[in-house]
Sequence to fold (259 residues):
Amino acid sequence: MPAAKQAIQMIGRTDGTPSVTIRSSDTQKPDSVYREIREMIVANQLAPGSRIVERDLADLLAVSRTGIRRALHQLQQEGYVTTINRGQRQRLIVAPLTQEDVLELLQLLGTIEAVASQRAAQLPVETRKRLTSQLTKLNDEIAVQGKLKNPDARRIHRIDMAFHRAYLTAGGGPRVLALDDALRPQTDRYGRLYSGAFSDYMSHSVEEHRHIIRAISEGSPPRAMAAVLRHWTRAAERIRVVIERVGSYGRMTRGSSDG
Fold:
């Protein structure tokens, strides 16, 4: 929704707390409200820590405030938005990007992918050969991109997502895929903001991917599951270090106020 996205103007408040002002409206179907707002958050066009104003979103998407409120309630349940207390008032904001949040997300994703990889390792031999060929091609491309003088971090992130999605789709049932669909956009928020800081760790990720490929290729469910869990445990540690170095986005500090 290019027109709607262009209608968003990020404005920093005088007290340092970010807020969002919507400058124009755009016609959207009510059933797309949840997806539209989620995409704004994932794309960081509603920035971490930004205050959310129902009326502005209703004007932008040309729907009732009831529809906006319903979508925001679902987004809050899924962790995209949260509330902060300001005296007697509660304010709805886009959830900050923090170490605690991403570690929980990666642990959940690791568990979901481990189940899928276990099933992928049980696929027929010819099916596994096609899958591992696809995985090897994607992983080799990540390795090549990572060695460039000026690697395209966003491109690497997209290829990495395709790698994980390949064996998840091959081995995951409807529930596994539904859980992944709910969680993946949240991790993508981190990928889009922090991807440039991961170039130093690319070789580690590539090698861990090779262990996953090997276990699936050899038809070993226990080893595939262990390789995936090990990969995500180490990935969580890497992103913990990166956030510690770069800093969280949108976290409120004590004493801060949005007036």
Observations:
- The first helix runs from residue 2 to 6.
- The beta strands are 8-12, 18-22, 81-86, 89-94.
- Confidence is low (pLDDT under 50) at residues 1-28, 252-259.
